[in-house]
Amino acid sequence: MKKSILTLLAASSLFAVSCNKEKAAIDDRKDAAKESIEAQKDAVEKAAEAAKDQADANAKIEKANIEANKEAAQAQAEADKKKAEAAAEAEKARVDAQPK
């Protein structure tokens, strides 16, 4: 009877140790999954920040291009205005030079 009690105690302690190891393994997998998810979240955050920075840079470039195009168009308009004024002055001078 004493042997069967000892055997039963040994078996139950082995079962308890086995269960504890299994629970520890489950906890380890859970912790690893949580760490992996946190790493993914961090990667997503960094990627989003980089995308925002790139969008800001692109917007600045686009604004600079718009400003440059505006200035070029204004300069062309001013040149066209001066050309028209010069043509008008030349036409007036031609009219004045004609014999009357």
TrEMBL record:
Region feature (Disordered): 71-100
Listed Basic and acidic residues bias regions: 78-100
PROSITE patterns named among the record's database cross-references: PROKAR_LIPOPROTEIN (PS51257)
Domain of life of the source: Bacteria
Protein name: Colicin import membrane protein
